[in-house]
Amino acid sequence: MSTIFKSGFLLLSLMLILGFGNNNLQKEKTILTKLKSPPKVGEIAPDINLPSVDRTVSYKLSDLRGKLVLVNFWASLFAPCRFENPNIVKAYNHYKDKNFVNAKGFTIYSVSLDLNEENWKNAIIKDKLSWPYQVSDLKGYDSKVAAAYGVRSIPYNYLIDGDGKVLAINLRGAQLSKTIEKYLK
Hints:
The chain is α/β, with parallel strands linked by helices. It has two domains: 2-34; 49-181, 3-Layer(aba) Sandwich (Glutaredoxin), CATH 3.40.30.10. Helix content is 37%, strand content 19%. The protein is built from six helices and nine strands; from the N terminus they run H-H-E-E-E-H-E-E-E-H-E-H-E-E-H. It has helices at residues 2-18, 24-34, 79-95, 117-126, 144-148, 174-181, and strands at 49-51, 58-60, 68-74, 99-100, 103-104, 106-112, 134-135, 156-160, 166-169. The chain has a five-stranded mixed β-sheet, covered by helices on one side. It has a two-stranded antiparallel ribbon with strand order 1-2. A hairpin with a 6-residue loop joins strand 1 (49-51) and strand 2. The longest helix has 17 residues, at 2-18. 30% of the residues are buried.
């Protein structure tokens, strides 16, 4: 009888460990189905509303409708981001006053995945990131915005047209300017 008792106890313990007998598994499935997939080319980009670098205002991505926008995810302490910044600065300076097929002007909406505000501010100054739309929740990879956009590594970006539709994803180096050129009037 003691062998049956031990077997039953072992089976019950195993069932509890694996999630049987409770609804945790169902809860996890529900959470996963509620998560949306990141935006794809041709889809409308999800809105973002995050505080600015000086923390006095928040900027909404949707307020930039009518412009060609590069939504750029980066962090100050990640070398590949810092190496890519000169390309982004060059594109901004060259295209900011141009007209496009579906947009007037070009700007950048930089979403920092930094955790440290001072590091972020210093990198903006050092890399000469002169556009006004520098935002962050200072939550790093725990940022809900990064999750909504499917950001798993940085730098990562989305090129968005004047209607908020995604035109291209993850453009780097010369590819950024080459893609922007396609949409010039």
